[in-house]
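Quick one: structure tokens for this chain, please?
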Amino acid sequence: MKKYSCETHIDHALDMHVAETGEFPMMDLLKEGEKLSTVCSYCEEQATYIVSSK
């Protein structure tokens, strides 16, 4: 499972990952090239983070 998140929704993305998978989430910054075309999974802002499983 992968979710993209902006600065505003990162706490929600982490909480949702734990609730949906029961696993500890990995949080990584998106690379500069990925940021340009990736939007937050919860709004239309530019994503900053990717939340995923190990």
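The beta strands are 2-5, 26-29, 49-52.
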